[in-house]
Amino acid sequence: MTQPIKFQTENKTLDLPVLSGSVGPQVVDIRKLYADSGMFTYDPGFTSTAACESAITYIDGDKGILLHRGYPIEQLADHSSFMETAYLLMNGELPTTTQNADFTHTISRHTMIHEQLAMFFRGFRRDAHPMAIMCGVVGALSAFYHDSTDINDPVQRTIASHRLIAKMPTLAAMAYKYSVGQPFLYPDNSLSYTGNFLRMTFGVPAEDYVVDPIIEKALDTIFILHADHEQNASTSTVRLAGSSGANPFACIAAGIACLWGPAHGGANEAALNMLREIGTVDRIPHYIARAKDKDDNFRLMGFGHRVYKNYDPRAKVLQAMAKQVLDKIHVKDPVFDVARELERIALSDDYFISKKLYPNVDFYSGVILNAIGFPTSMFTVLFALARTVGWIAQWNEMIQDPEQKIGRPRQLYTGAPARDYVEIAKRG
Ligand code: CMC
């Protein structure tokens, strides 16, 4: 047992307990700090604050390690499937053959959406960003599935979880179809989770759609790599929304909204747009110079990470996969030459080395998704589709946590102290 940390205020000394997890840094328990000392802690961006206990995902940012329920991400990417990884994240253990078949079957039985939800899509402009559509339609699920919004009922929580995982590909594909003016395709439950999504996205009713196994495997791996990532901004948003007792559909909609930002899930779209803007290899030095310029707020999108300061293990898997996929599907696009050269220059540049800025998952996923044929506006939607599994696993863990309380951070107030109201005629 680690000795408590002594915390000295003007007139007393407090003992702050030190907690240990199964792996990772120890944690100072400051829950009684305010009651005992009248002081808050200050930690914008939560860089030193653990907001919950969790047994789902572990990251060691210095060593570049990512574990789901203890299993290294590289092994899951090589050997698992997205459905199996989803089961693992939700239930804590890899499924047996029967459990895997039952889970996959259950998810496939929830892929259809209420027919009236299709009308929601028609209310959007055709040029609406698909993430804007996703924020709306996922939140709207709570208006259709009343029988799974009671968060105190474990059966309803399970059904809502299955519904969300199953319906995300259907909604995501509909958002895409709406933007290109093609008819929505109903799910085909004889296909895999990822194969069905590809068909609903790229198929048309007039023709049979044959799922390409190389693309199916690549996309399934991208989904595995994005399935969960500990207490990142969108997951923390889902937990915070859920801490008030909001229903799971509303909580996942909140997560989608947070994910959209370019510093988080929106970086995959921003990274590819940046590669297109750079355009040719000879223009890279200009953009590197801009990224280093303190007076320019331009950043190399797809580089850097709050937690990984060595390398992003997901990016490593995707870097190898990007090459294989591009070779196999024979795509020729100048964007790939720019990506490869940008990566080479940035990895040998002192600025990026000293600040530990490495390509992250969004850098390579954008390149692969572009090769598969997804428009950039869909990239973050695909991230949301995969991350729904992590969000819902974390939400379920939170609901069952006996320590769970409504999330309510405090602040360092720097505004005016109390003062009396002044009549408008007397203000000058
Ligand atoms: N290009 C140029 N400089 C950068 C970059 C970048 N991409 N990222 C960080 N820096 C610099 C930054 O200017 C700062 O310099 P200084 O110390 O001189 O002020 C230093 O590196 C530390 O940056 P920070 O913003 O304090 O670091 P952070 O941990 O708060 O931010 C980040 C992490 C991911 C938001 C940031 O690296 C970034 O904006 N990257 C680009 C967006 C991106 O690719 N995001 C995807 C993250 S991975 C997937 C996900 O989580 O969704």
List the helices and strands and how they pair.
Layout: E1 5-8, E2 13-16, E3 18-19, E4 27-28, H1 33-37, E5 57-60, E6 65-68, E7 71-72, H2 73-79, H3 82-91, H4 97-108, H5 117-122, H6 130-140, H7 154-180, H8 193-202, H9 213-226, H10 233-243, H11 248-259, H12 267-278, H13 284-292, H14 313-328, H15 334-347, H16 350-354, H17 361-372, H18 379-399
Antiparallel strand pairs: 1-2, 3-4, 5-6, 6-7
Helix pairs in contact: 2-9, 3-18, 6-7, 6-11, 7-8, 7-18, 8-9, 9-14, 9-17, 9-18, 10-11, 10-18, 11-18, 12-15, 12-17, 14-17
Bound molecules: carboxymethyl coenzyme *A (CMC).
Written account of the structure:
- This protein is mainly α.
- The strands form three sheets. The chain has a three-stranded antiparallel β-sheet.
- A hairpin with a 4-residue loop joins strand 5 and strand 6.
- The longest helix is centred in the middle third of the chain and has 27 residues.
- The structure holds carboxymethyl coenzyme *A.
- The site of carboxymethyl coenzyme *A has 19 residues, from helix 17.
